[in-house]
Amino acid sequence: MKLDIQGHSGCDITIVHEDNDLHIHKSTHDAGYVPRLVNQANKQIAASKIEYQNIRVPKIFEVERNETDATIKMEYIYSKNFVEYFENAGFEQIKYLIGAIKYFIDLEINASTMQTVPSNILTDKMADVARKVEKNALLKDDAVAQELVRRSIDVMNGVGDMMMPVGMCHGDLTFSNILFNGNNYYLIDFLDSFIESPLLDIVKIRQDTAYLWSTLMYHKPFDKVRVHIISEKIDKAIDEYFTGKYEWYRKYYMPLQLMNFLRILQYGREEKVVAYLKDVIAGQLDVLQH
Question: pTM, whole model, 2 decimals?
Fold first, then answer.
C-alpha cells in the first residue's frame, strides 16, 4: 500500500506498507533543500531520545542522502489532526493539551541558557524579508505590503539586543505539526530556526491559538466556532502562564511574532492568504507602535 501526500515544505510525503508495518517516507529532490531536511531529521532524532510527559516524538529509522536527494524513514503514528481532535475533545482533554504544551516549553527553557541575542540578528533578518518581499511577484507592487515592511523595519531597529533562553526549540510548533492520539501528542516536522529559542516555539504555537493560521490551510468543512473557542482558551492559558513567569516573554513576544508573520508573508502566493497576513501584521504594528 502506498499513498502520496504533498508536504507544506514541498517535500514528498509517502505512507509505505513494509515489513507488516507502516512507515512515513519524507523526501526531497531539491539539492538546495537536502542539507535542511537532514538537519531537521537530526533534530527530530535528538528530540526522540528525550522523555516528555504526554509528548512523543516519532522515531526516525533511517536517513538517506546524496548531493541531490534525501529521504528520511520514520515511524507512522495513528492519530487525528487538530481539527478532528478539537471537534470531539472534552474540557479535560483540552486541559491535558494545555498542560503538555506548557510542560514541553518549560522543559526546553530549562535545557537552554540565558543568552544575549545581538540586535543585528533581528535587523539582518528584517532586511532579508524586505528583499524577498520586493522580489515576490504578488507583493512587489503592493503599496500596503511595502508600507507594512517599512513600518516593521522601524520596529525591528528599535528592539535592540535581546536577553532570552537559547539552545532548544522545535522550530515549527504549530497545530499542523502535532498529531493527536488520545492524551498523547506527537511532534513532527522539527525545523531549524534563525534563533534556537523556546520563545520561538511560543510564537509558533500562538500563531495558531491567537491567529488561527492552520485553519486557513484546512480545506474540509469543520465546526469553526468550536475550533475558535478552543483555540482562544488554549491561547489565553499559554499567554497568562508565560506572561506571569518570564520577562523575556513579556518584552520580546510581540516583535518576534511580527517577524514570524513577515517571514510567512515573504513567500505569499495566494491573494486570500496575503490579505489575511497583511491584516494580521497591520494589527501587530498598531500595538507595537501605539
Answer: 0.93
